[in-house]
UniProtKB/TrEMBL annotation:
Protein name: Putative two-component system sensor kinase
Residues that span the membrane, as ranges: 21-45, 57-81, 88-108, 120-139, 146-165, 171-190
Protein biosynthesis listed as a keyword: no
The protein's enzyme class: transferase
Length: 415
């Protein structure tokens, strides 16, 4: 029996994704609380026929404000997690709508009499909820100084405007106190929840970085071991070859025995090297990108990476694209005077596309030496073995771009 789709999606999520989903929907509940509480106050007034007819338009505006606050919470959380710029426009629009709805509710003048308490309290409830919801969203969506200054300005507007419209002093004080206390508590809870999601994502990235560093450290240790094996054997070969030369000059028959020993050591070294490097010839995409960026920056090249979907690539695809990164970075250093270089990776439509673009390409390419220029040809052959293609062209004067496309769906079907 198959499980429902929401359960399957939940089980497919990582722990950071689950934490973020929980935080996101908690914030959405805060966003819809504004129109729900306002509707409750309006419904209480409507049961006693105390509500002006035009007030229903304000209620419709509150529903729009609730939907707008959901958008503000969504974009604000993404900005807090560093995925997009701060949504200043959405924040300004939401604040303006909250002030406008409160002012409209006050100016419509619901009766302020002892026999109409529900209608008299409706504008105050709307103003308090508007301020609380907006400040809660601003605590996540905006930098702290802008959230504080915007919150103070909004509370001031929601208290000054009713005062100028003739609302009772008790109602104005209630709006101010309720807005300050409610927003402070809700904003603190929302900010802590968003901070928790951010910390979880940072811990997840730190764990991935630790794993990559462990792999890099193991490769470094392996390279040292390989150097030790080759160094010892090559030193032995050099000594025995020199001894064989001396014996041959003296026409001693032992020279043949020494060269036979050299041949045996060389064969043993070849076998040992094959055994050592077996399983270590894979290239890891993230490691190659980090290494390429480090080398290019050391050469005063501004290196940027734009990765989308890299973690979803299988190990074989990352290895193939890692070779592209290595060769492209080598070409930037050898054949250009680049000031900036960009690595772009996107995964869409069942294919992974890696673009490496740099400037500083001379107008007249330098003459190639004999045997040079085989790097891109080797990459084309490597990609062709996996059903991919490689193109190299200049998108503009002084620029050069290498594009590698690896069809993932086709590769899986072949496998």
């Amino acid at each position: 029996m198959s499980r429902p789709r929401p359960i399957r999606r939940w089980q497919a999520m990582s722990k950071p994704q689950r934490i973020e989903l929980y935080v996101r929907w908690s914030l959405y509940i805060v966003a819809v609380a504004q129109p729900l509480l306002a509707l409750g106050s309006v419904a209480a007034a409507a049961q006693q026929d105390e509500l002006p007819a035009g007030f229903r338009l304000v209620v419709l505006g509150m529903l729009v404000a609730g939907a707008l606050n959901i958008v503000l919470f969504r974009t604000g959380l993404a900005a807090y997690l560093g995925r997009r710029p701060h949504p200043y426009g959405w924040a300004a629009l939401s604040a303006a709508l909250s002030v406008g709805l409160t002012l409209a509710a006050v100016l419509m003048g619901p009766p302020n009499a002892p026999d109409a308490p529900a209608a008299a309290a409706a504008p105050g409830v709307m103003a308090t909820m508007s301020a609380t919801c907006w400040i809660t969203a601003a605590a996540i969506a905006l930098p702290t100084r802008y959230a504080l200054s915007g919150g103070v300005a909004l509370v001031a507007a929601l208290t000054v405007l009713p005062t100028l419209a003739g609302s009772p002093a008790a109602a104005v004080v209630g709006i101010a106190v309720g807005s300050v206390v409610g927003s402070a508590m809700a904003a603190a809870a929302a900010r802590c929840s968003a901070w928790m999601a951010k910390v979880v994502w940072e811990l997840d990235r730190a764990r991935e970085a630790q794993a990559r560093l462990a792999v890099a450290e193991e490769r470094l240790r392996f390279s040292r071991d390989l150097h030790d094996v080759l160094g010892r054997n090559l030193a032995t070969i050099a000594l025995k070859s020199e001894l064989a030369v001396q014996l041959a000059r003296r026409q001693r028959p032992e020279a043949v025995d020494q060269m036979t020993e050299v041949q045996r050591i060389a064969q043993d070294s070849q076998r040992e090297v094959r055994e050592v490097v077996r399983g270590y010839r894979t290239v890891e995409l993230h490691t190659e990108l980090i290494g390429a960026a480090s080398v290019l920056r050391a050469a005063n090249v501004d290196c940027r990476t734009e990765l989308s979907g890299a973690d979803a690539l299988p190990a074989e695809a990352q290895s193939v694209l890692g070779w592209v990164v290595r060769e492209a970075a080598t070409n930037v250093l050898r054949h250009s005077e680049a000031a900036n270089c960009t690595f772009r990776l996107r995964v869409s439509g069942g294919a992974a596309v890696l673009e490496v673009e740099n400037d500083g390409v001379p107008a007249v390419p330098p003459a190639r030496t004999e045997g040079a220029g085989s790097g891109l040809r080797g990459l084309r052959e490597r990609l062709a073995a996996h059903g991919g293609t490689l193109t190299a062209a200049g998108p503009g004067p002084g620029r050069f771009r290498v594009t590698a496309e690896l069809p993932m769906a086709a590769r899986e079907s072949v496998a």
